[in-house]
Automatic annotation (TrEMBL):
GO terms for molecular function: 5'-nucleotidase activity; protein tyrosine kinase activity. Its EC number is 3.1.3.5. Keywords: Hydrolase. One of its GO terms (cellular component) is cytosol. Coiled coil: none annotated. Transmembrane segments: none annotated. It is an enzyme of class 3 (hydrolase). This is HAD hydrolase, family IA, variant 1.
Length: 209
């Protein structure tokens, strides 16, 4: 069995760091109601796509992302916590092939997992490289780093529509989690193969596989 994990909203709760960075960036650019926005909508999918709901031009989006990353590199990446019991999931399935497939820049994802002490559980940590944030391609990159049997079951675990769409594009099964930033109707709409409510439910899901 092969299991790929998303990072934000699946392994870590990064809301504080991301929302604080975006709020500061939005205020700089005069975005209306920056204090009252629902920042969950910006976590998970590639930021360049999410920010189209806020900015009118690609130039503004690129500049805003650069400002956000300055904040995130200095402060935001440290304003996060691992979800309670998520390490128990890794331990439960440690004899299988575990991977990370995240839209976060690859180096930043690896640094975060190193700090948490989780890198040891994963055969490979795949993330955005050279601006490539397409989740399907990131999943395919992760899978290309290991040997898979033709009949081996492969699951992508994530909390947002981009994880489900990416999994379908890569031809693997998807497990949507509701403890992250996505909602059930979002995961159902995009066709998640399975949906679990909590981290412990995720552990039980794989325990029974």
């Amino acid at each position: 069995m092969v299991v790929l994990f998303d990072l934000d909203g699946t392994i870590i709760d990064s809301y504080l760091g991301i929302s604080s960075g975006l709020k500061e960036t939005f205020k700089k650019y005069g975005v209306k109601d920056a204090d009252s926005l629902d920042y969950n909508q910006f976590i998970g999918p590639p930021l360049r796509d999410s920010l189209k709901a806020v900015f009118d031009s690609d130039e503004e989006i690129i500049e805003a992302i650069e400002d956000f990353r300055k904040y995130y590199d200095e402060k935001g990446q440290y304003e996060l916590v691992a979800y309670k019991n998520i390490e128990d999931v890794f331990i439960e399935i440690k004899d299988h092939k575990l991977l990370v497939a995240t839209s976060k820049p690859q180096k930043r994802a690896r640094d975060i997992l190193d700090r948490l002490g989780y890198s040891k559980y994963f055969h490979y940590i795949a993330g955005a490289v050279d601006g490539e944030h397409n989740k399907e391609l990131i999943i395919r990159d992760a899978l290309s780093q290991i040997d898979c049997d033709e009949d081996e079951e492969i699951y992508m675990v994530g909390d947002r529509f981009s994880d489900i769409v990416g999994a379908k594009g890569a031809g693997v099964k998807s497990v949507g989690v509701l403890y992250g930033y996505g909602k059930r109707d979002e995961l159902e709409h995009y066709g998640a193969d399975y949906i679990v409510d909590t981290v412990l439910d995720l552990k039980d899901f794989f325990k029974n596989k």
